[in-house]
Amino acid sequence: MTFRNGLSSLLRPEDSVLVLIDHQPYQLANLNSHEPQMVVNNTVGLAKVAKAFGVPTILTTVVAGRGGNLFPQVSDVFRGQEIIDRTFINTWQDPKVVDVVKATGRKQLILAGLWTEVCVAMPAIQALGEGWDVTVITDASGGVSVEAHQVAIQRMIAAGANMMTWLALAAEWQRDWARAETAGKVTDVIIQHAGGSGIAYLWEQQLLNTPVPKTA
Fold this sequence. Notes:
Blueprint: E1 16-21, H1 25-29, H2 36-52, E2 57-62, H3 64-67, H4 72-75, E3 83-86, H5 95-103, E4 108-113, H6 116-129, E5 133-137, H7 146-159, E6 162-164, H8 166-174, H9 180-193, H10 196-208
Parallel strand pairs: 1-2, 1-4, 2-3, 4-5, 5-6
């Protein structure tokens, strides 16, 4: 087993590409591993962070005519962007998706989707076998049961995948609060989507009167 450690193993926005998979009504209807609204919130937070860092984000659905359109809260983050609709359950078997990902020239592949045990696990395991550095954002994903979600995570870890949450990813991309070009944008996403952490930050600003400077 190859261990993922060392500074070079941390995720970098300039090397990352994000694929959001099947955040659709049909899948949400039988999401039982998480509170559904939490997954929607976390997915939107993830999408906004990716946009803040300029990380290419691929939006994809499966048979949207039956399963429903991508959550509007997510598509609104990337207004006007094409959403790739598939028939393949395994996203990584669809050349339209893979070609777009490969065209970015990036090798840190980040996945989130519904359901974890199906539409996330299959592309993660296939991409790992093809040499990609795969990270799954577990709290912007979910399964039909707690067991299904957890077993899928175990299966992907065994295959070599890295697991993170959306807020941990934001921190890893930011890495240094002195990076003023993104610090304000990240802070805005934390305020909007990180619950108590966002409220605590606003309170800190109130008490200390130390707002993060906004970039032009």
